[in-house]
Amino acid sequence: MPLPDTMFCAQQIHIPPELPDILKQFTKAAIRTQPADVLQWSAGYFSALSRGDPLPVKDRVELPTATQKTDTGLTQGLLKVLHKQCSHKPMVKVTDLERRWRDLCLPVEQLRALLRLEPCEDEIEWVKFLALGCSMLGGSLNSSMRSVCEVLSEDPEGSGARIPFDTFARLYRYLAGMDPDVQSADTETYLNTLKANM
């Protein structure tokens, strides 16, 4: 049996004063982030908002780059979002990472493929996972490191994207060590030359 149509007048409906601003910020965030699944992303957005966690929101609208080997949905902007959400601890729980990954509507198969590259039980070192994510974006070690620098840098967008040399060297060694074609001697020569030219 259908419910009767009920008419309400403005005096009967109480709208919380903060609701319009919450909906406005939510709408702007959805437009900037362009989630593949708006409902799933919205659930993650409002869950993070209620917990006081960093929101799953890109800084600006971004399109996937054409240089990706496969369309993973992963972009540099989404890695920046994950970095904002996960970098407060050196180690991140895999379950927490998977929840945040799903909130960004990224394919879980891709997450599992990344985790197979760095086998772990319950936790993974955040910067190593970030480096692996950046390696999915580009086809070469240099383009992966460019993405690492852009995600980790605290410089304003459009500037140098600088990070501490020790961080760069550590992640460069890590990614180079995963490539069987890169010799460790070549890695050290490159890093020594880079450091000498700083």
Class by alpha and beta content: mainly alpha
SSE topology string: HHHEHHEHHHH
In round numbers, the mean pLDDT is 88
Low-confidence stretches: none
Main beta sheet strand tally, sense and closure: 2 strands, antiparallel
Rg, Å, rounded:
21 Å
Number of strands: 2
Q: What is the subunit organization of this protein?
A: single chain
Overall 3D shape:
elongated
Give the helix tally: 9
**Per DSSP, what share of the residues sits in E-state strands of 2 or more residues?**
under 5%
Straight-line distance between termini: 76 Å
Name the helicity range: 55-70%
Sheet with most strands: strand arrangement: 1-2
Explain what the structure shows.
The protein has 9 helices and 2 strands. The protein has 198 residues and is mostly helical. The chain has a domain at 64-196. A two-stranded antiparallel ribbon has the order 1-2.
Please describe the structure with a list of short key phrases separated by commas or semicolons:
2 strands, cell projection, ROP_DD, Ropporin-1-like protein, elongated, cilium, 9 helices, mainly alpha, two-stranded antiparallel sheet, 198 residues, 56% helix
